[in-house]
Design goal:
- The protein is about 50% helix and about 10% strand.
- By secondary structure, it is of the alpha/beta class.
- The protein has two domains: about 375 residues, Glycoside hydrolase 38, N terminal domain (7-stranded beta/alpha barrel, Alpha-Beta Barrel); about 110 residues, Families 57/38 glycoside transferase, middle domain (immunoglobulin/albumin-binding domain-like, Up-down Bundle).
- Strands 1, 2, 3, 8 and 9 form a five-stranded parallel beta sheet that branches.
- Keywords: Carbohydrate metabolism.
- InterPro entries: 57_glycoside_trans_central, BE_C, Branching_enz_MT3115-like, Glyco_hydro/deAcase_b/a-brl, Glyco_hydro_38_N_sf, Glyco_hydro_57/38_cen_sf, Glyco_hydro_57_N.
- This is DUF1957 domain-containing protein.
Length: about 525
Amino acid sequence: MEKGYVALILHSHMPYVRHPDVEDALEERWLFEAMSECYIPLINAFDNLNKDKIEFKITMNITPPLMAMLEDEYLNERYLEYLDSCIELSEKEIIRTKNDKKLNGLAHFYNERFKNILETYKKYDKRLMNAFKKFDELGCLEIITCSATHALLPLLTINPETIKAQIATAVQSYIDCIGHAPKGIWLPECAYTYSLDSILKEYGINYFIAENKAVLNASPRPKYGTYTPISTSNGICAFGRDMESSQQVWSNYLGYPGDFNYREFYRDIGYEAPMEYIAPYINRAGIRIDTGIKYYKITGKTENKEYYDREIAMKTVRDHAGHFADGRNRQIMFASEQMDVPPLITCPYDTELYGHWWFEGPDFIEQFIRMASEDWTNFKLTTPSEYLKQNPMVQCCSPSPSSWGENSDYSVWLNPSNHWIYKDLHRCEQSMIRLANTYKEPTDIQKRALNQAARELMLAESSDWPFIIKNNTTVEYAIRRVNTHVERFNKLYEDITKNSIDIKWLSNIEEIDNIFPNANYEIYRRN
């Protein structure tokens, strides 16, 4: 009999990287790689579990930008082209490696894998949201939302209307896609501050996922730490991240993904094959990029990598899944002896870790879920809403402002490298509020422009841009995205206020930045 519960929560997010105006946009590959390496393997795992009649409940946040891209006709057609290219390259690799038995076996593995991905993709009519909605309807997956464009909400509190717009738009886009309202929300970067709970309550959100310090440093101090949720005075519950289970996956030194038997992320034939051979399968501009075909395992801290062995990797997955399940068993056993309510271990992770950075990650999740259903475990998998339904009495505390970023504060997203962004954002936010309060009976064209201004503002507010700048990755792209959306917003503002809307230009950016078809500028109106 179970003595407690584990809530596995996957945060699935991609910034809005739809670029029909750019030939072979590198950033669209971020989405395609995640679809092939993370989302479809997880769908296959859930299908396998359902086929074997294994009951489970997990939670998955699918952010509004990702949801929109998974439903987008243009991106789905581009993904199909991407998959066809992967299959073609893997077939060439089978021929190229025919004289190396080990390498040839891996080439066959990738060929079969890509074909299986294509089969699953077509099975769900080239719309992955069809799969996730199916699991939601079956009751094994609870899908929660996020802010509209993954904006870091505590940094927008100077203009509360913008936070309301982010939440209202997220909830509406979720309903439009899933068919019912979300019960919970993944606050972007798990960033919380005072007053957010009242806005969440206004839009029907019951709970959010928080960094452990939001709960551990709450006032008053929670009786059971992160082993139970806490409730704000508004009745919105916060589920704090469990650090022991987190470290077993995330730790650079002790985390499972660094095991020497797992696939090496940084060795891809896109960088190693001769240019004349690989050119048709990388960026059309000749930029070398990942192809998804990686032949080596981590091996160790050496450049002399050994070939990947799938069979050994899967044995390691089973070992790690067993170790993880045993760890939760021990935690539950210890906590339950000290508590008068069932303990809950909240395990939130980025979905993209499972499959992209950690190739075997989706297999680990499947194996862990299988083990969680076995008699030797003393816990059951659950979702936050299910736990609250069974345990409605929750301690009232005020969560501490925090995030799951470095230092548990907001410094990753606000620092000398990126602070310039917020001056532009706040100016645009104030202008958007002014527009919403001024234009109460707009013409059809004005309404289109006003709604597009709202889209451009929300896209500029994405936390991905300051994050990328701080981490010094694709900095030029992030800066360009902020500036482009701000420039488009400013032109829209000027055209609207001067009653000189350029309809051709408006139609063009409506096609490019077509997120949130039901966007409503009136949500920025100040009461």
